[in-house]
Amino acid sequence: DTEVTQTPKHLVMGMTNKKSLKCEQHMGHRAMYWYKQKAKKPPELMFVYSYEKLSINESVPSRFSPECPNSSLLNLHLHALQPEDSALYLCASSQDVQGSGNTIYFGEGSWLTVV
Amino acid sequence: SQQGEEDPQALSIQEGENATMNCSYKTSINNLQWYRQNSGRGLVHLILIRSNEREKHSGRLRVTLDTSKKSSSLLITASRAADTASYFCATSRNTDKLIFGTGTRLQVFP
Questions:
Q1: What are the pLDDT digits (tens) for A53-89?
Q2: A105 touches chain B (CB under 8 A)
Q3: A97 and B33 in contact by Cβ < 8 A?
Q4: CB distance A42–B100 less than 8 Å?
């Protein structure tokens, strides 16, 4: 069983809505990630947080806004999304971003549908 | 952009047979990891192999890495219906920016 918990599992939102995806881990990991995965495609990195600071933003549109309130929590705030943003959003964590060989643990994902 | 290309894209075998999936990547790496994803679920970490290693085993899994050819293979021995899933290789260089390959969809028939 994954130790990265994501809520909600499913979310349907309109293009004018504001919603948030939440992620939590209690493994003491200091790096957390958001990935986006479209059907039958590999996950694509969106954001990396290291020690609660944003370290990587893969040129993600500003309608996606990440937030790391503390070392255990990671949110993804959604506003004015487009139907093409519908996808599986995966949260992940690892012990640290430094060095090689840090296993990254994934949550079960949040299925987002934008209507 | 994607770092790895995997082949085959899809593989169908009978229970008890071995399944081999291959991953090729383009630039130098620090390590390569393999993940499994059941349909519509999260990714499960299977095994990590560092750039200075050539082979690793974990249960029925055997992973090889050839850095001169920039390729890796995942072998699942004595496959089971429960092994049906998509398998992704993922590489990283100096940070934990993990880049996934295109994936292989494995179907194991009982």
A1: 999 899 999 999 999 999 999 999 999 999 999 999 9
A2: yes
A3: no
A4: yes
